[in-house]
Write a structure and sequence with these properties.
The chain has 862 residues and is α+β, with helices and mostly antiparallel strands. Among the domains are: 310-437, no CATH class; 810-861, 2-Layer Sandwich (Herpes Virus-1). 39% of the residues lie in helices and 19% in strands. The strands form seven sheets. It has an eight-stranded mixed β-sheet with strand order 13-12-11-10-14-15-16-17, with no helix packed on it. A hairpin with a 2-residue loop joins strand 14 (168-172) and strand 15. It is elongated and about 140 Å long.
Length: 862
């Protein structure tokens, strides 16, 4: 038979397509194709006229073109009966065929009959046990499953009854997955336990996926375990699949409705590709025997091959779509079975090769994503950019020029994109101990990229990025080289940051001052140098360096002259290691007037807890002078209110202000609230109360004031009553406010003191409520004092009795009595006696509560 050559006729793929479709055998001899399977380079076809065809297929010199030859043909002599199933048992070298309900076993190589499976006619379905160490076959008839095991010959080992014929049957490690008309079930072939999964109302379709089953329910694919429990996510198809095949890590669904294969990732259940079938022909069958070289699909006369693209080509497709995570997941899954060291090397090689390939294709983003996933030594990537990385041996400009066939303008645009991608790559990468590249090398390249206008046209943004690098440890960059680069490129602010971080403070301050005084010729900076100068001086520790103090006074002057409010932040910083001497700062700021000294005093007092009475009073006098000035001119209400609020805060919160001095200064000013606060602080409560009543005319506040300060002066409420008694009486004998005060403050007003204040002609009934409440309260106080007196008297008597009981005990000291501590006679020396009658010399007496002999603690004895 002649050998024929066929090339692929279609490669309709998604951009990230894992598969390609090509014609393998354009015309099968004999009848129409019903079923097919494959083993190594052999393809076995079952036709509708009872024949089995064996084709030998070889790839022609790695060209993607295949040679095929019909090498064997067997007629089952069943007339027009179709061959319905072909199954390969690879390790046994056997091919099982089902035709007209009869099972025939062939030699896989010669297609000669090789043994048999003892069974009568009526076999509806055959399946092999997958993922098993044994060689077992299951034959389904109308009412049972018959299990045969191969031990030289096929022997029946078990029959399992089933309620109805199956529409789908799969067998994996002892578990059958069965689809009946209305449901999927799992059946344990050993225990015969049936595990229902879920109902179905459409054509069933399923596949074995690693340790799970994938079951189709309408347009939804559900992964379940051997126990019927859902696992992973669900697969969503565009329509109910007609057949499912697995090529790890993908599952292919055949859709007759759309004439395409829908390919999903098993890893994340996402749609990877739709592979259209050419000319929308109806696909009759497909087969992906475990371990077979070919994934096949066929119409009635044509056999197609679904080629799995190489991992490298799939990775490149994914990276071109910026799907780095999917690419990494794909490679990890493919290499999971390899040894760790080999897998790591292979992983790195795949992404490195993909990156280099994509560079040659001028696919910048995908190339750098591949380099990042490969976890390359950054030097490998920087090596493509000799203009930025001295000693680079590869020239990306030449690579890109070749990629666009010498079009320099286009190559220059691509070079800019490459530099931008290099910048992003280096910003993300973190060198590890596995890499020889140092942070210094990376930072040097990054700074050069930031200084390139085509990469970073915004000078302000460039300065921010450079400053971020310079704020790192100076060991992470070459300061001398960077200073030269920054000066030559006109980035003087960044140069000053570099000098600051390398401890050349005068150099940094001088550059900022020059920028603030009109700029430097050729400078690209928009920064006027004021804020960075303030930040540096505000954090400078002047306590340990006379040079630092000199720099502080020297450079603070030009900042204050340029912007007073900003310059004051130099002296109002909490981040300085050692606070400045407030007196020294005030002497320095006095030349700038109250606009400078007042904010500093506020900072010193309120934020730094300055305890100097002189500075507290000084700030108070500043506020008073400001208030006087505003009042004398008139207007400026907002400024007046703001100043008064600050003054009130000072006299309320300050613990060091001299109230009498401040009160004297505002004596003639209409600052009633301020006077009230000062009088209260000075404990001149009667004067404060008089101010509330006579000048503020706020009686409710007066009563509250009395309530709040009753413990300081019990006569306040009585004094307020005297004031109220002088108010107009209207039609009553006593003023209404006096009557209300008597009622509300009956406990604070002693009747003995109140009654002389009341008019002699006033009936007692008008103050009945007050008298009843006051008398009850005073009687309660009297009774309480009597009880307290009785308790104290009782305690006194108990104490006296205890004393008498203790001192009335006789104690005889003879010459033979020894001190148990020093073991010397007590004699006529001063001694001490414990409650347990232990006697010791007074000089040996250590504790009045603990006996030195028995260690008894008398304090704990009740």
């Amino acid at each position: 038979m002649r050998r024929q050559t066929v090339a692929a006729i279609t490669r309709e793929t998604h951009l990230a397509g894992a598969f390609e479709l090509s014609v393998l055998i354009p015309k099968v001899e004999g009848g129409k194709i019903v079923t097919l399977t494959s083993w190594e380079e052999k393809i076995y076809v079952g036709t509708d006229d009872g024949q089995i065809l064996c084709y030998d297929v070889q790839e022609h010199e790695n060209t993607g073109r295949y040679l095929f030859e019909l090498v064997k043909k067997v007629n089952l002599n069943v007339g027009k009966r179709p061959v319905e199933q072909l199954l390969v048992i690879r390790d046994l070298g056997k091919l099982i065929a089902r035709c007209d309900g009869v099972i025939t076993v062939f030699n896989l190589f010669t297609l000669e009959i090789s043994g048999s499976i003892p069974h009568k006619k009526g076999v509806l379905r055959v399946c092999l046990e997958r993922q098993s160490q044994q060689y077992r076959v299951c034959l389904e008839t109308r009412s049972r499953l018959s299990i045969y095991e191969y031990n030289g010959t096929f022997q029946l080992i078990k029959n399992i009854s089933i309620p109805e014929p199956t529409l789908y049957l799969e067998w994996k490690t002892g578990i059958f997955c069965i689809a009946y008309k209305n449901e999927y079930v799992l059946l344990d072939s050993e225990t015969e336990e049936v595990i229902p999964t879920f109902q179905i109302d459409s054509k069933p379709c399923a596949a074995v996926v690693a340790d799970d089953f994938l079951l189709a329910r309408d347009d939804l694919g559900i992964f379940v375990t051997d126990k019927g429990l859902p696992t992973r996510g669900n697969v969503v198809w565009s329509s109910t699949p007609d057949a499912l095949e697995v090529r790890t890590p993908y599952v292919l669904a055949l859709s007759q409705t759309h004439s395409w294969f829908e390919i999903h990732s098993i890893l994340n259940q996402q749609l990877v590709q739709r592979l259209p079938f050419p000319e929308r022909k109806e696909i009759k069958t497909m087969n992906a025997y475990e371990g077979s070289k070919f994934l096949l699909a066929a119409t009635s006369s044509v056999i197609y091959m679904v080629n799995t693209r190489t991992v490298e080509s799939q990775v490149i497709s994914l990276l071109e779509q910026s799907k780095g995570e999917d690419a990494a997941q794909l490679v990890e899954y493919q290499l999971r079975q390899e040894k760790s060291e080999v897998a790591a090397k292979r992983y790195k090689t795949i992404f490195t090769t993909a990156g280099e390939t994509m560079l040659k294709r001028a696919s910048m983003e995908g190339a750098f994503l591949a380099f990042e996933l490969a976890d390359l030594d950054p030097r490998h990537v920087m090596n493509y950019f000799p203009a930025f990385f001295p000693g680079g041996t590869k020239d990306i400009q030449k690579i890109l020029l070749d990629a666009v066939e010498g079009q320099k303008v286009e190559a220059d645009k691509l070079y800019i994109r490459a530099k931008i991608n290099l910048m992003g790559y280096l910003q993300q990468i973190k060198p590890s101990q596995r890499h020889s590249t140092t942070p210094k090398e990376i930072n040097q390249v990054l700074v050069k990229l930031y200084l390139d206008p085509s990469v970073c046209p915004d000078n302000t943004l460039a300065d921010q990025q450079i400053e971020h690098i310079l704020d790192q440890n100076p060991d992470n960059y070459n300061a001398t080289e960077l200073e030269q680069l920054l000066r030559e490129s006109g980035h003087y602010h960044a140069t000053a940051v570099l000098l600051r971080n390398t401890k050349d403070l005068r150099g940094a301050l001088d550059l900022w001052k020059r920028l603030g005084n009109g700029g430097i010729p050729g400078s690209k900076d928009t920064n006027d140098g004021v804020q960075p100068t303030v930040d540096l001086l505000a954090s400078m520790d002047v306590s340990t360096s006379s040079l630092n103090k000199k720099l502080l006074w020297e450079y603070a002057a030009w900042v204050l002259q340029r912007d007073l409010n900003t310059g004051l932040k130099i002296f109002m910083s909490k981040s300085r290691p050692t606070p400045l001497d407030p007196k020294e700062v005030l002497d320095y700021l006095v030349t700038y007037g109250d606009l400078a000294t007042e904010p500093f005093l506020e900072f010193s007092i309120f934020d730094m807890d300055d305890d100097s009475t002189e500075r507290h009073n000084r700030l108070g006098l500043m506020y008073i002078n400001t208030i006087k000035g505003i009042m004398s001119k008139g207007g400026y209400e907002n400024l007046l209110n703001e100043t008064r609020e600050k003054f009130v805060r000072l006299i309320r919160e300050s613990k060091h202000i001299k109230e009498s001095s401040i009160l004297l200064q505002i004596q003639t000013l209409p600052l009633l609230e301020e006077k009230l606060i000062l009088l209260t602080r000075m404990k001149q409560l009667m004067k404060a109360l008089a101010l509330i009543v006579e000048e503020l005319h706020d009686f409710e506040r007066a009563e509250q004031f009395c309530h709040d300060h009753q413990s300081d002066d019990e006569g306040l409420t009585l004094s307020l009553l005297k004031v109220y008694m002088d108010l107009p009486k209207e039609s009553q004998i006593i003023p209404p406010r006096a009557a209300a005060l008597l009622k509300s403050h009956s406990k604070q007003l002693n009747p003995v003191q109140v009654l002389p204040l009341l008019p002699a002609e006033m009936p007692l009934v008008q103050v009945k409520d007050y008298l009843l409440s006051a008398i009850r309260h005073n009687h309660h106080l009297y009774r309480t004092s009597q009880i307290t007196r009785g308790l104290c008297k009782s305690e006194t008597m108990n104490t006296r009795f205890s004393k008498m009981k203790t001192t009335n005990k006789a104690l005889l000291i003879t010459r033979d009595v020894l001190c148990p501590v020093c073991q010397k006679p007590i004699g006529d020396k001063v001694f001490a006696r414990y409650p347990n009658n232990t006697v010791v010399h007074f000089k040996c007496f250590k504790s009045q509560n603990v006996c030195p002999v028995t260690n008894t603690n008398f304090r704990k004895i009740k």
